[in-house]
Amino acid sequence: MKLLIVEDEAPTAAYLRRGLSEEGFVVDVAVDVEQAQKSVGVYGYDAILLDVMLPGGDGFSLCKRWRDEGITTPILFLTARDDISDRVQGLNWGGDDYLVKPFAFEELLARVRALLRRHTATAGTAIFEFGDLAINTATRRVTRGGKVVPLTAREYQLLEYFAYHAGRVVTRTALWEHVWDSDMEPDSNVVDVYVRYLRNKIGRETIETVRGMGYVLPVQQDGRDEI
Amino acid sequence: MKFKNTLRRRIMLATTSLSLGILLVAGAGVYLGVRQAMRANLDDALRSIASAEIASADDEPGGKIHVHPNDATSLALTSQAGYEKFAQIENSRDRVIARTPNLQHGPQLSHDAVAEKRARQGQITFADIHLSDEPLRCVYYPFRAPDGEHLLAIVSIPQRPMQKALQSLLMALSLSLLLGGVAASLGAGALAQRLTQPLEQMASAARNIGESSLNSRIPILVADAEIQDVTEVLNAMLARLESAFAAQQTLIISQRRFVADASHELRSPLSNLRGTVEVALRRPRTDDDYRETLQVSLTEIERLSRLVAALLRLSRADAGGFNRPFESCDLCEIAAQSVTAHAARVTENDVRLSLDAPENVRVLGDADRLREVMDNLLDNALRYAPTSSHVAVIILLDGENCLLNVEDSGPGLNEADFERVFDRFYRADVSRDRKSGGMGLGLAIVKAIVESHGGTVNARNRGEGGAIFSVRLPVVA
Question: Do B434 and A9 touch (CB under 8 A)?
Fold first, then answer.
């Protein structure tokens, strides 16, 4: 899952990037309105964390502009402005959630995950289950038939992305955009390699290949072979 | 029923009782005067009857009054002036020697011993006597008979007709008093109403004026100068209240905004501290990681400290609470010290810093606070000064004021910022200011200190580019 943090204060951006990366998110940072618009125009993000007071404009207007342009990426406002009128404006102008600084990092995590679940229209909890495969997005533990499957960060991110988009075909480009950092050179082979690693760990048939298009994690996982 | 001690009631009662009192005194005067006049009239009539009768009796010896030593003769009075008259004549031994027929039989006249005694001494005397129950007015009229005997004529008239007349006069007076009283109380009520109504209207108008309607005024309802005066005085008071209230509101709003801004400013470093520490604590880290976390935290703590210190300075300048009483100090010397202190920073950027001031410009103030003004203005100018540019501090005398200008050749200000640049937490460019450590408070502190010294501040652009920040302070005479 790839997040864009729009924040001009370097210390804030730094700890957000660090904390969220460590929780398995792919994080890009934009320090002003211009950079944020450029990033959103180029890459696909799963959620945007948006500061309100920004150099070159304010977050509310930016959010509105994106919504007017048809960009539906969930947006979480992060701001020290806690007036009710500010919150209402933020939500009315297309924001999905609003968190007032200073906040607990745990709460930010929970809200980001809730936002991702809501937006990808998946189960209402933090745990995905596909047959005997269970993915807990809060603890990042993956189990198969009750046994823990150890995954690397990248493998987990890949699986999580499949889980959020279960039953839908996911293209290699989408995987590349949402699981890998924006500053890496595109290489679709890398995606295939990681999908193979993942299949080796959670079962070869769990993720199906759709020829010429990409991969899909079917919602119904019946009649599969055990490894 | 409990009455309120109202002005209306007092006016009504006072006016009514005053009118009643006047009516009563006037009525009593009329009554007593008429009574006196009627009595005098009666007495005159009695005297003239007596003298006329006796004179006629004197016409000839033994004329009409036949005095018989043994038997009282009948006395015929010639004048028939309306009233029934009772008369008799007594000789010197108190024997009745003649009497009118109506006294021949039946009850006899009563005596007033004192009056009779005086009459016997030769003085015509009047008295109130009775005939059985009937009150009479009589005159004791001494005269001398032809034979030289001292006689006493007693002529009397019933008082009843006069009393009747007086009674009906009293009735008429009482009636007019009653009617007058009713009319007076009605009139007094109307008068009181007329007098107090504007007051009540004013009261009800005043009652409807609250903090949200301080701009409304009490209408002038009547032409009476006194009421108009009161209304005008009240309205003038309302106007003063309105402006004081408005000033208070402005102050409250600006303070509320200041508190909101201050809490927002304090929140950013706090939020960074919290986030940085929380993220660091989520998993075991290397020593270098910890060191970096602590370094970031320290930076945020320093920012917090600077902010708190600036807020304290600002609130102190706001309250006008200076440690020392104002004294005469040399603004040029203060400026020179500040310029010297900033020299180190100047060399970093290769900025030329100059001071152009006359000798000894004295202002009344707190030298430390004025130094703070100078320092903040220079900090601000140097923050925006491009490399290899010029920042000039110029002090001028302008009549009773002195002008301290700090000119830079930086980017200058947007016209919209001329006023707002002195607002608290206002930053013309958020990100650049933050990076350069600006908190948006330096110029606000300048403004607060200068204003507490009775001066003014303003900002404008130089024609050739760059900004001028100007402080105007009164000089010591």
Answer: yes
Is residue B79 within 8 A of residue B49, CB to CB? The reply is yes
- Provide, as residue numbers in chain A, all residues whose Cβ is less than 8 Å from the Cβ of B429: 55
* Residue B253 CB neighbours (<10 A): 10
Are A8 and B260 in contact (CB < 8 Å)?
no
What span, in angstroms and rounded, lies between the C-alpha atoms of A176 and A159? 13
| Pair of tokens at residue B14 | 């006072």
CA distance A95 to A78: 11
Q: From the list B260, B264, B279, which residue is nearest A15 (CB)?
A: B279
CA-based nearest distance A177→chain B, Å: 25
Q: Are A188 and A172 in contact (CB under 8 A)?
A: yes
Helix (H) or strand (E) holding B407: strand B401-407
Nearest to A12 among B272, B278, B283 (CB): B272
Report pTM. 0.55
Give me the DSSP letters along B429-472: SHHHHHHTT--S-HHHHHHHHHHHTT-EEEEEE-TTSSEEEEEE
- Separation of alpha carbons B469 and B458, rounded Å: 6
Q: Which candidate from B271, B283, B430 shows the least CB-CB separation from A102?
A: B271
> Do B275 and A53 make contact, defined as CB atoms within 8 angstroms?
no
Q: Which of residues 52-81 of A touch B (CB under 8 A)?
A: 53-55, 80-81
State how far the Cα of A68 lies from the Cα of A87, in Å rounded to an integer: 19
Beta carbons within 10 angstroms of residue B447's beta carbon: 23
Phi, psi of B462 (to 5 degrees): -80, 150
A46 with A157: CB under 8 angstroms? Answer: no
Distance (Å, rounded) from C-alpha A63 to C-alpha A93? 7
Read off the amino acid at residue B350: D
Task: Give per-residue pLDDT as tens, B10-60.
Answer: 888 888 888 889 989 998 999 999 999 988 988 888 888 888 777 665 544
> Would you say B280 and B286 are in contact if contact means Cβ atoms under 8 Å apart?
no
Written as one letter, the residue type at A135 is: I
Spatial strand order in the sheet of A127-130: A127-130, A133-136, A141-144, A147-148
Give the nearest partner residue to A101 out of B267, B276, B299, using CB atoms.
B267
Among B421, B395, B425, which residue's Cα sits nearest to residue B410?
A: B421
8 Å CB contact of B429 and A32: no
* C-beta of residue B360 within 8 angstroms of C-beta of residue B318: no
- Number of neighbours of residue B169 by Cβ within 10 angstroms: 16
Q: What is the ipTM of this complex?
A: 0.70
pLDDT tens-place string over residues B196-248: 888 888 888 888 888 788 888 888 877 788 888 888 898 999 899 888 888 88
Residue B285 CB-half CA count within 13 A: 18
